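pinned: reference chain
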Amino acid sequence: MTHPFRPSAALQGVRYEIRGKLAGRALELERQGYEIISLNIGNPGVFGFRTPETMRLAMIENLGQSEAYSHQKGVFPAREAVVMQQQDRGIGDVSAEHVFIGNGVSELIDLSLRALLDPGDEVLVPSPDYPLWTAGVTLNQGRAVHYPCPRENGFEPDLEALAALVTPRTRALVIINPNNPTGAVYSRKTLESMVAIAEQHQLMVLSDEIYDQMTYDEACFIPVAQLVHNTLCATYSGLSKVYRACGYRVGWVVFSGEREQAQAYLDALDLLASLRLCSNVPGQWSVQTALGGFQSIGGLVEPGGRLYESRQAILDAVAASRYLSLVPPSGSMYAFLSVDQNLLPQFDDRQFALDLLEKKHVLVAPGTSFNVSYNDSFRITLLPDAGMLMDVFQRIDEILTAYASEHSDN
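pinned: its structure tokens
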């Protein structure tokens, strides 16, 4: 007998393992009294990072204006602040009418894809990817086609492979830069080539730039919208990461490039925004202060800053490890580590993540969570301080050394 409350078939193939079974098991262990170090998700507030005080004050001062619905696209000062940021970056063809505020970038990804896709339409998504993009395409009846970003290429896209994946059903190209999960920051040459492919085939460019100011050493972030002229470009960002305000749930998408041919699409997106009425209003009042004020993220990512030093602690730990390797992250708040399967031929990322959680009480995200074909990787966040990360890598090394001993015995 078919169960009357079976889940929708649309959920088949949809995964978000960053908050999946491993995270559920971690919660069970915490309830039993164990202290779990959760490195599976980039959640700054958990590790003591604070939202700038000026943003909190801006929200408090405008609470009296926050009790009614706002415009479906968001409050005007927030949208205008996004426009000013875009103009400061050399993107001058946008106005507040081209900005949509959402309950985080996550909601806007879903709405953008829902307005775009017909059943069977294809979207080019990087591999490794932030899995919400693949899930969003799948949930909206599309097909995520993953273009490779190989380790040996510093996790930058294989441009020939990307171009070969375009078909008549391809509708859009997703670019995540700075990248989650790998920390890659794409070069101008790479971005220009990707934009050229999109413009040649009239693909919509969906540029996820939530980590735009989070770069290290000599890495240079280049807004994709600077390069897109002959197709539609959607740029996504928000308060969650750079401004350490995940719980405010405020993100935005701004449309630039060739909008004249996309008016019907933009009208459809406006309809979807109207159907959900509006996004969280109190948080929107902090956007103008965030984007127009002192950018405190700079002190965190430069030498001596906490994120920079945590990143360095990871690099040092990997250099000292017999088993680990890493393409140094140039941006974002993650490291995508690899395990040498020549030394540990039986290594499996999911079993490792489970063993690390159960035996050492550290929660990481298996690499296969990010839609890759190999099982030798895992992702951690850079958010803990250097001392905690040194402890974490000691626990990781103990697990890997135990694997090596078991392999030797066998």
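why pinned: The mean pLDDT is 94. The chain has two domains: 9-50+299-409, 65-292.
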